[in-house]
Amino acid sequence: MQEETTKDVSTDTPVTARTFRQRLTGNGTAGGPSWIVKAAVLVTVLAIVLGGLTIAYNMASEEVREGPLFEFMEDWVFKWDVVKAINVGVDWVVVSWDPFFDFIGKVVLGILVPFRDFLLWLPWWMFIAGVALLAWRVVNLKLSLIVTSFLLIMAILGLMDLAMETLAVTFTASLLCVIFGIPVGIAAAASNRFDGVSKPFLDGMQTMPSFVYLVPALMLFGLGMVPAVMATMIYAIPPIIRLTNLGIRQVDAQILEASRSFGTTSWQLLTKVQVPLALPTILAGLNQTVMMALAMVVLASMIGARGLGVEVLTGLGRINAGQAFVGGISIVFMAIILDRNSQGFIKRPESRPAT
């Protein structure tokens, strides 16, 4: 008798005795209203609310319409105070931290300049042959022929030097993303708290318009290739952090438990088990990072990075559709070459963990 009285009320409520809330939410029945009924109720409620607001607005006087009930008051706007505070903070950082940013600039140039000079020194035919050979070994002969044709077209158009500068900035930014992104991804995989804190920052970095990164980079590092590399790195680093985190978290728990049972240390577990098993996912993140870096380098040409983006910007500035198209199609060629080669490397058996 006591068991019958303690049963869930919703399961014993007859269909005819259900309240409106139970009918709407489905409590008291095995099923519930379909999504069509729920959507119709939601649309009806919204229509009633909007209709009431419309009637109230039309019946209100001019003073009420311009009041805080319908219009946000200008006295409540503090936009310029916030802008002034941000500018003051940025000026303080630029002046006080100048030695630090100068050191970062020298480090970036120490990586970028030798790589760029080497690419510019390399004979054009040797570069084309090397990239074609890489495409053949990593993917297949078909891609090798396509890559060769793309690079020959760029050489005929006289854009090889600009392409080398773009490639140098892209690879430098990608290298910095790997150096800083993979450790951050490993830390996020090891700590749920750190992962939760880092997610909002990564979301903001991926959703913020790419032009926004040019402003602080320009103010902190001035014009040239260094701010282009730094802005590109900030814009392109989230994918490798996220996919490193995801790849390590997806490693089978039974494999980790078996490794620990054999006395594996934390460092050995990370370097010999987790990272090798997560390597395909990490490489997929690297592929996305390289693609985003190439896209950002084009925009970074606005602050003195040169490269293929200069052709596009110059064509737009002079309303020269041909020049802009030539630069744009060359960027597309480079994107295809980098994407297909990196994807081919990810799919190679050597990059997959042994079973």
Task: Characterise the protein shown here.
The protein is an all-alpha fold. It has a domain at 96-121 and 157-351: Orthogonal Bundle (MetI-like fold). Helices cover 78% and strands 0% of the residues. The protein has helices spanning 2-5, 9-12, 20-25, 35-59, 62-65, 79-96, 98-121, 124-138, 141-156, 160-190, 192-207, 214-221, 225-236, 238-249, 253-261, 266-300, 308-317, 321-347. The longest helix has 35 residues, at 266-300. The radius of gyration is 29 Å and the shape is globular. Residues 1-13 have low confidence and may be disordered.
Characterize the main sheet.
none
Question: At the fourth CATH level, what is the homologous superfamily of the domain at 96-121 and 157-351?
Answer: MetI-like
Oligomer description: single chain
Distance between the termini: 59 Å
- In total, the number of strands is 0
Provide the succession of SSEs: HHHHHHHHHHHHHHHHHH
Point out poorly predicted stretches: 1-13
Number of helices: 18
CATH architecture of the domain at 96-121 and 157-351: Orthogonal Bundle
Strand fraction band? Answer: under 5%
State the helicity in percent bands: over 70%
Can you tell me the CATH topology of the domain at 96-121 and 157-351? MetI-like fold
Structural class: mainly alpha
The overall average pLDDT, rounded, is: 81
CATH level-1 class of the domain at 96-121 and 157-351: Mainly Alpha
**Silhouette:** globular
Radius of gyration: 29 Å
